[in-house]
Design goal:
The chain is an alpha/beta fold. Helix content is 34%, strand content 17%. It has a single domain, classed as Alpha-Beta Barrel (TIM Barrel). The chain binds 2-phosphoglycolic acid.
């Protein structure tokens, strides 16, 4: 069985209570000790203030999930009001989404900023999950995990075809020898996830809308 990364990106959703209810439901249904789950790394990426709450739940309940952040500051520690630097996140997360197309679209971020963010994350022992929109998106040095997320597939209910996703994933690995894992993201559901994770060059999924309801996320985990 190949390694699979299953990353839930909650974006700007969920209250503290909703997060805790979700965690309890997922914990009751997903067990790392089940032999079919041995190859899976499941990462939940909540909004910043919920990160310590999710982390605390995971530790206290020996939940087989990991917590990640949806972003990291381009700055190091200092006078940067509103920013969360990698050195703060380091104590809480092992993973960090960087380069999401929503950061490009709504916050005008691009390759230079993402490169700094990747360097900051790696310097704090946080593994970047770097989002690319096509096979030619520039990937910063040091990135080993990429999420291929075509913009037309994000939040639209129109996923890429598995054949095209496999072709792009293969090409990303060929063009970027440092990249070991390529995840697919964009309108992933319990119905289509199997057709992506079974492909030779796809090593998991990044899930937005499909990760918000615990019942749907559990079905996605079961389908993997
Ligand atoms: P989606 O979002 O699953 O809702 O399409 C994926 C993402 O933006 O990471």
């Amino acid at each position: 069985m190949k390694d699979l990364f299953i990353v839930a990106n909650w974006k700007a959703h969920k209250t503290r209570e909703e997060a805790l209810t979700w965690l309890v439901e997922v914990k009751n249904s997903y067990h790392e000790t089940d032999s079919q789950n041995a190859n899976k790394t499941v990462v939940v990426c909540p909004p910043y203030p919920l990160i310590p709450i999710v982390e605390d739940f995971i530790i206290k309940n020996a939940s087989p999930l990991h917590v990640g952040s949806q972003d990291v500051s381009v700055f190091e520690t200092g006078a940067y009001t509103g920013e969360v630097p990698a050195t703060t996140l380091e104590k809480f997360v092992k993973f960090c989404i960087i380069g999401h197309s929503e950061r490009r679209q709504h916050f005008s971020e691009g390759f230079e900023i993402f490169s700094e963010k990747v360097a900051n994350a790696l310097g704090a022992n946080i593994l970047p999950v770097f989002c690319v929109q096509n096979e030619d998106t520039q990937i910063p040095n040091g990135v080993t995990v990429v999420a291929y997320e075509p913009i037309a597939a994000i939040g639209t209910g129109n996923p890429e075809t598995p054949e095209d996703a496999e072709q792009i994933a293969k090409s990303i690995k060929e063009k970027n020898p440092e990249v070991k894992y390529v995840l697919y993201g964009g309108s992933v559901t319990d119905q289509n996830v199997g057709s992506f994770v079974n492909l030779p060059n796809i090593n998991g999924v990044l899930i937005g809308g499909g990760s918000l309801e615990a019942s749907e996320f559990i079905k996605i985990l079961q389908a993997c």
